[in-house]
């Protein structure tokens, strides 16, 4: 994946070939204009090495999954009020951490992993005064895992879920979203996201639908996915609107399918003509395919989003009959419909606005009660629906946010960002459910066992998909790197 920086002169009969001139001239107006247009369209030079050829879709090892649903809660979910209840917080409520048996939780040596991206930020601080649990908790499933009363529907699926209670990250602000989506800290540079690598490495399961879909609002993390893999590997934004599901997908004027086909045919011919000037250019070929896909998507995407074709019972399972759950429920039902039609990777973001709707620096109880009300039933509906249709075994479902929240209070009724220990969960696609991996300490401040990084998280997903997480690649500067610096979580994948 190494891009050349020099100029190559293709000379014939003492003169420069027109293709070489167009591709290589760099200082004149023509070269600058052409370079700008190609950069805009994500087109690379024709001398890109063969390793940039489109993938054949064959996994590195035998996969346990073929698709991923990536549910991301923007802002930072409190792990203590969801997947890792800690009664000691209530027992010692109002006391400083130093006044409890757990003062080692603020040992400076254990807090050195933070890499600050926002200097002198008022948030992302260690909060000293313990804040009690804002919700009750109980055991769920045959596995008897303790979860909060705010997630009863997810709790009903717990025997299919593996909860990781020993997560940590190294970015104390919302840029940590980047770390979860790429496995790398944002200070390390821009790397393709998990979805982009899956899209690039495994290819298509359905030629009439995009293989990488994004729903909901992205917050602090980069709006791009492909980066040096190119825009062809960015997630395609989808709205739950059969009449207008795609950005720029609706014509400015009414036109019939015959007229639209003529337009797409013309664009295709123009691109084919340009390919004469840039032979063997995989990025140009990818763009031509994108135009072809765009036409096919005009029929296939609206059909997939026709949620009213589902039974009343199915719609109610996702919460479409309740205003509190309807919006996210529609996204979850659409997700199932995309999965069963062969979409590889679907990322769904919940919680738009500011730093993310889950960012409860104050009013945590009202905030999390409202947000869990919106997502709990729809997420459980997705898991149950995938399972009853025989799709859960081949689909990894992930639930996470960029970090947790502090055991101590911020202000009178909130919790600050907390990167040193929090919870996420995985289900399906070869993941062994009904178990807890890793433990936090008694106040959910630090991992007590098996600390787990976002890189381990992404490596686990790659492994389940048959992608070697230690495979070596190269960035746009030709520098080698491994796909993931983490290790698959062995007890979860067998």
Largest sheet: 8 strands, mixed
State the helical fraction: 25-40%
Known CATH architecture of the largest domain = 3-Layer(aba) Sandwich
Find the count of extended strands (DSSP E, 2+ residues).
Answer: 18
Strand order of the largest sheet: 8-7-9-3-10-13-6-14
Distance between the terminal alpha carbons, to the nearest Å? 33 Å
Structural domain tally: 2
Instruction: State the shape.
Output: globular
Number of helices: 13
What does this structure look like?
This protein has two domains: 67-240 and 305-493, Alkaline Phosphatase, subunit A; 247-297. The chain is of the alpha/beta class. A hairpin with a 4-residue loop joins strand 4 (137-140) and strand 5 (145-148). It has helices at residues 18-24, 29-40, 87-91, 152-155, 176-182, 194-202, 257-277, 282-304, 312-317, 323-340, 364-388, 454-465, 490-493; strands spanning 11-12, 15-16, 67-73, 137-140, 145-148, 161-167, 212-215, 236-237, 345-350, 395-400, 404-410, 414-418, 422-427, 435-437, 439-440, 447-449, 472-474, 480-482. Mean pLDDT is 82; it is low at 1-55.
Question: Characteristics of this structure?
Answer:
2 domains, two-stranded antiparallel ribbon, Alkaline Phosphatase, subunit A, 494 residues, 13 helices, eight-stranded mixed beta sheet, disordered N terminus, globular, single chain, alpha/beta, 31% helix
